[in-house]
Amino acid sequence: MTTELKELLDSNKQWAADTETREPGFFSRLLKQQTPQYLWIGCADSRVPANELVNLLPGELFVHRNVANVVVHSDLNCLSVMQFAVDALKVKHVIVVGHSGCGGVKAALNDTRTGLADNWLRHVQDVRNHHQEWLDGLAPAQRVDALCELNVLEQARNACQTTVVQDAWARGQEIVVHGWVYGLHNGLLEDLRITAASAEQVGPAFARALSAVKLRYDGQRLQSAD
Predict the structure, then answer these.
(1) How far apart are CA 203 and CA 94, in angstroms?
(2) How high is the pLDDT of residue 31?
(3) In angstroms, rounded to a whole number, what is the distance separating the alpha carbons of residues 149 and 69?
(4) What InterPro entries does the record tag this protein with (predicted)?
């Protein structure tokens, strides 16, 4: 096993050279400004590289990631990122992004002990518990991805309810919150349609999105039963 990680440093040099060749002056321009329009709050899973999924360059997407893309009001790390993105960078969109087959969500669903992260995943278990009866009615193979989507909806609603977003809306700042899910099996992002641009839109947007998710999975369950 290497201890110097030379292969990564060499890859970085090649990437920097290729980037400068492709876009001369890129790093000089990047040094002078950071003006992303989007804040991505996603899972820390290495298979979900935020910039690459939406084909954006460094400086175009502000990113916060944690296990199972959780947004909770006691997490000062996430809230600090949100505050800087909204107040200082003036991003216009906050996107909470989950993904299919999420290991953290699976552990929360099945009460699998993972260690210290169990305490963090209690937030996802709260989502599971709230929708437990409906989840139990799904085929076992559907439950992880269904909970992944329910978790996105709940965390997007949490993002809307943070003081950062609420204060921005109160002062008339343009902020739109979204909830998306990424399919590891096909590389595609799907908009779950929990889209809110004001405090008044949060409740109705959540209700519509939740109904749409449940209708879709219920339809799949009925099809598989035929």
Answers:
(1) 17
(2) 80
(3) 11
(4) Carbonic_anhydrase, Carbonic_anhydrase_CS, Carbonic_anhydrase_sf
